[in-house]
């Protein structure tokens, strides 16, 4: 009859058979272990040293009846989401003296198979699994569900007991604390790194290749040790050739409201005068301007003289995608010479709202349905839903149509609104002949402004008062923070750090509010200037005889907007004149065809306005004031 020894031997033979390994010389079953390693070059680690060290420490911590039979490792950040882990190829760039059986994804996949090559997984430390507690515990749980324990070389290892008893309560507590510390450590490093980049930006230092229009000006590194090694930082200075190109691009974008592609086409006409940008990788250069290169120049806020950082995401799944504007980090004061002022930059960004989903080129497009030319394409909007009308023919007649899909259509919006092009052109011609190039345009504009100024002025004053209250509230909060510091007898380091961070946040909010208030006060002081009209000739306009290319250029320069209200059957027209666009409009007006029997081209002096022109022309600071005029006309429906 067998005793306890026979039962124990039978159990050991069964365990050895289930694990698939032969017994060692001592009679204990051989336990097969897979090693899992990870290192990140973002932490300036050397994978050729770090990974062999991790393997050596893991092997030294294992009992005698174990053997490492598979090697899985990656060179990647431990902060990546689990689904994104193990897909990189960074390990191929290094001569790592360890055979590689796959990535962490391969390990997790093999752990689910009944014919897996290992019985347990070991790593040097639990933070090598992941730097985020959630992903680390998730990986550990998946392995345990598959019957594979996760071991760490810096923790007690027990393989001679049942898997249900292998983890002691204290061991679980210790591991969870280490996982939390690992996540805390990387989060703290990111916070400090972020603050360092903010200070770097505030001091005006550039990161990476200088943007188009500027060139790098190296300066000695402020840290003596790095300065001794020849390390330098860079500031920006205007490029003698590219700088004027940037100013010219902003002028075209704002005054003529050209699209990015139209600006690129103009620049490509003379690549010697307008050299294209050179990318970081020389072999990717195309040798000419493109839509994207023009867009990159016109959307880069560094041209305002401020240093700006964090415009694009550099990590994770959204790498190289634009960040929201509110996440950008701006220097408080300008740090280099500005190519355009802030107001000009904002105006250039607003053009995109007008240009969105609208082709700027004249004539027909290559679309099979675009067989006709629509003279007012992209300039007519629905007064109710604010959508842009599109051109559509019916029985040989050109119409402009607003027909939103049913889910996006308001209850009182018709299924479709049709406006004939002929009526629009006739009404617009009357408007331009009377209000822009007409004899009595000055009197008509003054009358319109008298009706508009009162409400707009009240709105601006109310907004200014609201900003002043918000600034005062931010100042009060900052004073309360200082008062709270006085009430604490022995403030610790964490308290002082949190207080400084909150003060910096309030200071940033206050500076932003003060900038908004300054712009608004400037807007209040700069009222619309009717004198701009005196720079235009007097002539009648016949839009039916105007070539499409010239009419589109004229409409863009005038910033034409026509809003049609189907309820009242009224079309309201609005144009905006600025000091920068007056010259271009005057040049185009000289070749505008007049109406038969209409007024011929005359100057303002010939119309008896010489007395008004005795005063010098107005001068402008920053963004020029705009003289805007509106007019409405009606015509029957389709």
From TrEMBL:
Keywords: Coiled coil, DNA recombination, DNA-binding. Pfam families: Recombinase (PF07508). InterPro entries: DNA_bind_recomb_sf (IPR038109), DNA_bind_recombinase_dom (IPR011109), Resolv_N (IPR006119), Resolvase-like_N_sf (IPR036162), SSR_resolvase (IPR050639). SUPFAM superfamilies: Resolvase-like (SSF53041). Residues 211-358 form the Recombinase domain. Transmembrane segments: none annotated. Residues 594-638 are annotated as: Disordered. PROSITE patterns: RECOMBINASE_DNA_BIND. The keyword Coiled coil applies. Signal peptide: none annotated. Residues 457-523 form a coiled coil. GO terms for molecular function: DNA binding; DNA strand exchange activity. PANTHER family: DNA-INVERTASE FROM LAMBDOID PROPHAGE (PTHR30461), SERINE RECOMBINASE PINE-RELATED (PTHR30461:SF2). This is Recombinase domain-containing protein. It comes from Streptomyces flaveus.
């Amino acid at each position: 009859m067998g005793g306890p020894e026979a039962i124990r031997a039978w159990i050991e033979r069964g365990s050895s058979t289930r694990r698939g390994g032969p017994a060692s010389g001592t009679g204990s079953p051989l336990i097969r272990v897979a090693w899992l390693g990870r290192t990140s070059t973002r932490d300036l680690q050397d994978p050729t040293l770090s990974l062999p060290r991790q393997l050596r420490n893991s092997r030294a911590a294992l009992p005698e009846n174990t053997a490492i039979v598979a090697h899985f490792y990656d060179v990647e950040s431990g902060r990546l989401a689990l689904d994104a882990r193990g897909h990189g190829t960074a390990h191929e760039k290094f001569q790592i003296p360890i055979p590689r059986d796959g990535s962490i994804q391969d390990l997790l996949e093999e752990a689910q198979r009944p014919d897996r090559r290992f019985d347990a997984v070991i790593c040097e430390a639990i933070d090598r699994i992941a730097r985020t507690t959630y992903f680390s515990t998730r990986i550990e749980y998946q392995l345990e569900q598959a019957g594979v324990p996760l071991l760490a070389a810096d923790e007690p290892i027990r393989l001679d007991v049942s898997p249900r008893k292998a983890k002691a309560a204290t061991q679980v507590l210790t591991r969870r604390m280490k996982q939390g510390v690992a996540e805390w450590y990387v989060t703290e490093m990111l916070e400090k790194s972020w603050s360092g980049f903010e200070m770097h930006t505030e001091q005006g230092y550039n990161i990476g290749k200088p943007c188009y229009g500027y060139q790098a000006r190296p300066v000695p590194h402020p840290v003596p040790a790095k300065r001794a090694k020849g390390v330098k930082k860079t500031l920006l200075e205007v490029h003698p050739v590219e700088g004027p190109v940037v100013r010219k691009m902003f002028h075209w974008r704002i005054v003529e409201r050209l699209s990015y592609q139209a600006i690129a086409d103009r620049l490509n006409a003379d690549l010697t005068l307008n050299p294209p940008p050179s990318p970081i990788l020389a072999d990717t250069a195309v040798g000419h301007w493109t839509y994207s290169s023009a867009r990159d120049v016109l959307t880069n806020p560094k041209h305002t003289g401020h240093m700006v950082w964090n415009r694009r995401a550099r990590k994770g799944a959204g790498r190289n995608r634009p960040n929201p504007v509110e996440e950008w980090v701006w220097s408080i004061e300008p740090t280099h010479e500005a190519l355009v002022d802030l107001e000009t930059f904002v105006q250039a960004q607003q053009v995109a709202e007008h240009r969105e989903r609208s082709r700027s080129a004249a004539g027909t497009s290559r679309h099979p349905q675009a067989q006709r030319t629509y003279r007012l394409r992209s300039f007519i909007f629905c007064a109710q839903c604010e959508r842009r009308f599109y051109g559509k023919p019916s029985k040989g007649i050109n119409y402009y149509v607003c027909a939103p899909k049913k889910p996006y259509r308001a209850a009182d919006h018709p299924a479709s609104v049709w406006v004939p092009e002929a009526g629009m052109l006739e009404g617009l011609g009357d408007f331009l002949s009377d209000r822009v190039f007409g004899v009595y345009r000055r009197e008509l504009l003054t009358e319109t402004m008298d009706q508009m100024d009162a409400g707009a002025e009240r709105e601006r004053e109310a907004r200014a008062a609201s900003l002043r209250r918000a600034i005062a509230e931010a100042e009060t909060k900052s004073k309360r923070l200082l008062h709270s510091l006085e009430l604490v007898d022995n403030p610790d380091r964490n308290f002082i750090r949190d207080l400084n961070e909150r003060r910096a946040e309030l200071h940033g909010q206050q500076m932003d509010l003060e900038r908004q208030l300054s712009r608004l006060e400037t807007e209040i002081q700069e009222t619309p200037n009717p004198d701009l009209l005196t720079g235009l000739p007097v002539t009648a306009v016949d839009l039916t005889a105007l070539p499409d290319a010239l009419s589109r250029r004229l409409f863009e320069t005038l910033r034409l907007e026509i809003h049609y209200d189907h309820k009242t059957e009224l079309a309201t027209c609005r144009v905006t004149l600025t000091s920068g666009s007056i010259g271009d409009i005057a040049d185009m007006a000289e070749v505008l065809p007049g109406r038969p029997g209409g007024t011929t081209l005359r100057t303002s002096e010939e119309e008896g306005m010489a007395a008004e022109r005795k005063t010098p022309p107005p001068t402008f600071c920053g963004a020029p004031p705009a003289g805007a005029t509106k007019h409405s006309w009606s015509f029957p429906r389709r």
